[in-house]
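Subject: Sanity check before I submit

Could someone independently write out the structure tokens for this chain? I want to compare against mine line by line before I put it in a report. The sequence has 97 residues.
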Amino acid sequence: MHKILEKWIEKNRYKLEEIGITTDEIITTSEEVELPCIRVDQSTDKCIGRICVWKDGTIDLEVLDIQTERRLMFAHYEEQHEVECFIQPYIKVILKN
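---
Independent answer below. Compare away.
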């Protein structure tokens, strides 16, 4: 799933920017670490978000309000096979504020 997310972000980067979500950083750990992952940091004018997907399929999503530092979303998924299943709720929260 972590490679699928990376491809999805790259494919949709400009669409995300058009709706106000900037992809600030994409970090992929080495395959040599015990549990490789991809971390995607994104931001809007009011929020910062992070998507972290491990090679085993575990996914964590987090969105914080920049001004108040309040956590607006934290979600944990054991396994998802479709990016859309977890990305749409995340997008709704990061854009809502």
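---
OP: Matches mine. For the report I'm noting this point. DSSP finds two helices and five strands in the chain.
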